[in-house]
Specification:
heterodimer, A: 229 residues, alpha/beta, 5 helices, 21% strand, elongated, B: 271 residues, 9 helices, 87% helix
Chain lengths: 229, 271
């Protein structure tokens, strides 16, 4: 008899513990879904929700403050998203707060991120519609990337053509770099300039000793000496 | 007709008969199991109720299976975590380990592995016990003594198995998650609080409820099959071993089939 009672107690403890574990699990899952918290409902109208689903998180200042309650297509290009938000966050959410569909990390779920409004504004109330910002979709980024890649291809083609012309010795830069005759002409010109500069120096020395120009050179020298002092 | 052809014709006839016999016995067995189930539900609702025997069976089937199920659950969580880590680390997604392991354990691995362990331990026990009772004519003796053996033996055991398996699965899931926590901390440093936050971040009611509901059916299947095999045992002492063996084999196979159906139904509703 004693043994039977002991067994019953053991069984009772075992069953109760397991049921408590189940209830605790249900509570934690329910709490995540704002099932046991005071909440209020806000909505936003988006053009594209990028795969957002009912149950995804709503984030405000990096904190999960709510979940997506309902998603409904209202016209051919607009979708209404209802969000259940924890009552505790209401005081920080102003009328001009903005919502954007974001992503939880590179591989994460879609989320709605709410940007806080201006401090002086009124708080959001139950059933309010908040402003939305259209997210930049991956498709848009890829489309822009394609344009950039096309331009890069054209530029690369042009550079390739120019380098081909230079290598062939055509054009000014091509001749400058590749044409040996041109290089010889340039060398000759430099020699000529050098010789011309030497002759010009001799002429100027002779001119400074000339009776007619001596006064001018002396004045110039005096002016320079004054400046030095 | 030459002797060779005669023997070949005989062989073909024999194999045809053998397949026919097998098919016939399969359908007969299916009908008998269905009738056995029908009798179970009839006896279940009809008073008097053998409540004391049910509690005793619940203790034997549930509480006594707990150490085995707990050990299996712990190892299950630990091993799954250790094995999953390298793959997730390749993607730099080790922080997803608690959530991934939790979903795997709660949705599938916990219920199925626990049910298989349960079928092995409890199914064989019930099958062998009832078969030996049948062989030693204890069941007949009960009838003579004015006790309804079906109600006393079968209903209590099937009900105990049906209600205890979900309880065992919940306990096994919790212990497996603790094993996973140990596994995560073997090569990392995650606090208990953060681990369980991560676990419940990804778990939803759609993970917990279908998984718990299907264990009720698993428990019923294990109970009814092992009772049927034991209650209808024959061939003397040899039949005891056969009953225990076929109770485990049929029980395990039924668990997998029911799991496949449950997954299909769950995915149908989750769309």
């Amino acid at each position: 008899m004693k043994k039977t009672t002991g067994n019953k107690i053991k069984l009772g403890i075992f069953v109760t513990s397991s049921i408590v574990l189940l209830i605790a699990g249900i509570y934690f899952i329910g709490e995540k879904g704002q099932l046991f918290n005071n909440t209020f409902l806000i909505s936003g109208v988006f053009k594209d929700i990028s795969g957002l689903q009912v149950g995804n998180n709503v984030r405000f200042s990096g904190i999960n403050v709510g979940i997506i309650d309902n998603i409904e297509q209202i016209t051919d290009s607009t979708v209404r998203v209802d969000m259940i938000i924890d009552e505790g966050s209401r005081k920080f959410m102003k009328k001009n707060a903005k919502a954007i569909v974001g992503s939880d990390g590179l591989m994460g779920n879609k989320i709605v991120v709410i940007a806080p409004g201006t401090p002086g504004k009124k708080q959001l109330v139950d059933g309010d519609f908040i402003e939305t910002i259209q997210p930049i979709s991956i498709d848009d980024i890829l489309a822009k990337l394609k344009v950039t890649a096309d331009h890069s291809a054209l530029i690369t083609g042009d550079i390739s053509a120019i380098s081909g012309e230079i290598r062939a010795g055509r054009g000014t830069i091509g001749k400058l770099l590749m044409d040996s005759t041109f290089a010889e002409h340039v060398e000759e010109t430099i020699i000529n300039i050098k010789q011309g500069a030497g002759g010009f120096k001799q002429n100027m020395n002779a001119a400074s000793k000339n009776v007619l120009l001596r006064g001018f050179f002396k004045k110039k020298k005096k002016g320079e000496d004054k400046k030095k002092k | 007709m030459p002797a060779e052809i005669k023997s070949k014709v005989k062989q073909v006839e024999f194999s045809e008969n053998s397949y026919l016999k097998k098919a016939k016995s399969f359908f007969e067995e299916a009908a008998l199991v269905t009738m056995f189930c029908g009798r179970f539900f009839k006896e279940l609702v009809k008073p008097p109720y053998e409540f004391a025997e049910f509690i005793k069976q619940a203790y034997l089937v549930g509480y006594k299976s707990f150490p085995l199920v707990a050990t299996t659950g712990f190892i299950m969580g630990l091993v799954l975590t250790i094995q999953s880590r390298p793959t997730l680390a390749t993607f730099g997604a080790e922080s997803w380990l608690p959530a991934m392991v939790a979903v795997s354990i709660v949705r599938e691995i916990g219920p199925v592995i626990t049910a298989l362990i349960f079928a092995g331990k409890v199914g064989s026990g019930i099958g062998a016990e009832l078969a030996s009772m049948k062989v030693t004519e204890q069941i007949d003796a009960m009838e003579v003594a004015g006790i309804n053996p079906f109600k006393y033996i079968v209903v209590t055991r099937v009900m105990a198995a049906t209600l205890m398996l979900p309880i065992l699965v919940i306990a096994a899931d919790a212990i497996a998650l603790y094993g996973s926590y140990i596994g995560v901390n073997l090569k990392g440093d995650v606090s208990f609080h953060l681990f369980f936050l991560k676990v419940f971040e990804k778990l939803t009611f759609a993970d917990v409820f279908p998984a718990t509901i299907k264990t009720v059916f698993f428990g019923f299947a294990v109970g009814i099959i092992s009772c049927y095999k034991g209650y209808n045992s024959n061939k003397g002492t040899e039949g005891v071993g056969l009953s225990a063996n076929s109770a485990v084999v049929m029980g395990s196979l039924t668990i997998f089939i029911m799991d496949m159906i449950a997954v299909q139904i769950t995915s149908l509703f989750s769309k």
